[in-house]
Amino acid sequence: MVFVLGVVAFAICIGISIALHECGHMWVAKATGMKVRRYYIGFGPKIFSWTRGETEYGLKAVPAGGFCDIAGMTAVDELAPDEVDRAMYKQKTWKRLAVMFGGIAMNFVLAFVLVYTLALGWGLPNRDTSATVAGVQCVAAQNEDRTFDSCSGLGPAGDAGIRAGDVITAVNGDDTATFADVVDKIQGATGSVDVTVQRGDDTLTLPVTVQRTERLFALDNSADGPLELRTTGAIGVARTPLTIDYNALSAVPGAVSYTGFIAGQTAHAIVDLPSKVGALWTAVTGGERDADTPVSVVGASVIGGQAAELGLWQVFVSLLATLNFFLGAFNLLPLLPLDGGHIAVTIYEGIRNKIRAVRGLGKGAPVNYMKLMPLTYVVIVIGGAFMLLTLTADIVNPIQLFQ
User: Fold this and answer.
1) Per residue in 350-399, pLDDT tens?
2) How far apart are alpha carbons 212 and 140 in whole angstroms?
3) What DSSP element (H or E) covers 296?
4) Which residues are catalytic, by number?
C-alpha cells in the first residue's frame, strides 16, 4: 500500500513540477503585458476548465505535460483584434526571452528548494570520495544482533601512526582512490600491510597489522535481506560521514554547492542521452537493465514508490530535484518545439535586427516557423521514439535500485 501511495505521490509531484514550469511562462507573459489565452495541464480530451479574466484554465485527460497558449507566440498564429499589439512575436527581445526562460527558471528554483529541504531534513551526500580518515579506533567484533563487543586502545591503525585527516592512497602498493577500495584491500588481508597515506605535503608508508574480526555481511543486495557473520580483516579506521548535516543558515551555501554538482551531472547526462539508446534496446530485448539508463515518468514514479516503501524519503526528494534539473536543462536545448528552440529564434531575430539597425535598415520580418517545421517534426519523431523506448524499458525491465 505504501508503495502504491509513493508511486502516486511521485507522479503528482512531477505533475506539479510541470504545472509550475508552465506557470513560469504564464506569469512572466502576463507581467510583461502579453495575453495568455489558455493554461492547461495535460493533453488530449478536456476534463474541466474555467475562465478567469482573459485566460482559460483547465485540466486534460493525459497527464503527460501541459501548455501555456500565449497570443502570437509565432507570426503564423491567428490573432484576434485585441491581440494584435500584444502578440508575443512583436514584443521586445528581452520580454520574449524572459517569458521563455520563465518556465525553465521555475524548474531550477523548485529543484533548489528541494535540495535545500534535503539538506535540512537529511543532510547532503558527502562528495569527498577519497579515503580520508575521520579517526582511528579499536577493532570490536560484531554480533548477530548488530551490536559490537567492547574494546579499548587506538587499534592497529592508530598504533601504526595513522591519524585523523590522513588520506590513504595505497595498500601494499595498490592505489585506493576511495574508502571502499581500502576496505576491499584490508578485508581479505592477513598479517601486516603497508598503508600509504598523504599527510599534508608528506607521503608516508606505514606498516599496519591487520586484525581478524567478525562482521555482518548481506547475503544479497536487498536493503533488508538476511545477514551472516564472517571473519574479515580490519585496521580500525573510520571514514568521513556519508552525509553532511546542515542548519537553516549553513544549508544555503551547501544547497548552492550541491545544486552546482547536480547541474553538472545533468548536463553530462543530457550529452550522453544518444549513447543510451543501445543500452535501452538491450534492456527491452531481455538483457540486463543498466542503472544509469534514462527513465520515463513511469519509471521515476516506481522508483519513488520503492523509496517511499522503504522509508527513504531523502531518495524520493533527491530524485524529484534531479528530475526538475533535467526538465529545466533539457528545455534549454536549441531545438524546436522545446523552449530552447524558441529562445534560439528570438536571439537570432534580436541580433539580426541590431545589425540591420546599424546599417540604417528597419526590423526584418519574423522568422518563418513554417520553414522550420520539417526540422521540428524530426525532433518530435526522434524524441517521441526515445520516450517510447524508455517507457517500454521501464515496463518490461525496470531499474531495480532497491533489491
Assistant:
1) 999 999 999 989 888 999 999 999 999 999 999 999 999 998 988 888 88
2) 10
3) none
4) 22
